[in-house]
Amino acid sequence: MIRVVVADDHAAIRAGLVMILGDADGIEVVGEAEDGATAVRLAKRLAPDVVLMDIRMPGVDGIEATRQLAGVCDVLVLTTFDLDEYVRGALRAGAAGFLLKSVEASALVDAVRQVAAGDGVLAPSVTRRVMREFASAAPRARPAALDALTEREVEVLHCLGEGLSNHQIGRKLHIGETTVKTHVSRVLTKLDLRSRVQAAILAQEAGLVGGPGEDGQVSGGPARP
Questions:
Q1: Range 69-93 average pLDDT
Q2: What is the rounded distance in angstroms from the CA atom of residue 163 to the CA atom of residue 96?
Q3: Which is nearest to 134 in space by CA: 57, 41, 204?
Q4: Distances in whole angstroms, Cα of residue 152 to Cα of each of 99, 159, 164, 174, 202
Q5: pLDDT tens per residue across span 102-125
Q6: pLDDT, the chain, mean
């Protein structure tokens, strides 16, 4: 059972999200929050698999709450706004995914399942914009921290940059998913990153691989096995 906390300051929207997720097989909404501070407290107390997080909330907003939950649980940001500053802020904070509230109910349920499984999701419109930014920007200098990675960890980082899930990485490198999770955790620790999405972005910005796939899936999740 996937345990979810829903955080949104609009009661009607929050109720709708709870209804959608509550009707889905294998998903249980274990808590609701009307602001970021409450979401953080609930997540630390209830240990959900995923927090569905709005961005614009009073007091502690969704980006700061996501930053505070890095390494605690997966955060899937769901917002009305796809402004670049929100996208970058959410991903820098360690979000495993970014979706717009216009997403279909079935796609939202699928996204929660993907994030809980250790993958990450970006709204297609957001993915296209990120791809354009990667295409127009010159590759950054290779981070010195990459030299601390083993050969296998570099291979895993390449796979993250290609947007592969744990299962896909395992098949490509001919290793088990448990071993993949161990390597991912070590990569994140050595590179001082909060999430696998950040690792994917680093790999792309450093020119190690191309941009993420157009299907909107990017490997993601916080820095934990």
A1: 84
A2: 12
A3: 204
A4: 32, 11, 15, 11, 17
A5: 899 999 999 999 899 877 787 766
A6: 84
With the C-alpha atoms ordered 181, 222, 136, 99, is the resulting torsion angle positive or negative?
Answer: positive
> Across-strand partners of 76?
52, 97
Name residues whose C-beta falls within 8 Å of residue 223's C-beta, 6 or more positions apart in sequence.
70, 71, 94, 185, 188, 189, 193, 194, 195
In whole angstroms, what is the distance from residue 159 CA to residue 106 CA? 27
Q: Is the pTM of this model over 0.90?
A: no
Q: Which helix (H) or strand (E) holds 141?
A: none
Tokens, residue 16? 């709708």
Tokens 């007091």 label which residue? 59
pLDDT digits (tens, 9 = 90+) for 23-75: 999 999 999 999 999 999 999 999 999 999 999 999 999 999 999 998 889 99
Structural domains in the chain, sorted by start: 2-116 (3.40.50.2300), 138-218 (1.10.10.10)
For 106, the 3-state DSSP assignment is: helix
Q: What is the dihedral of CA 140, 142, 145, 148, to 10 degrees?
A: 160
Q: Between 196 and 97, whose confidence is greater?
A: 97
Per the CB < 8 A criterion, the answer to whether 74 and 65 are in contact is no
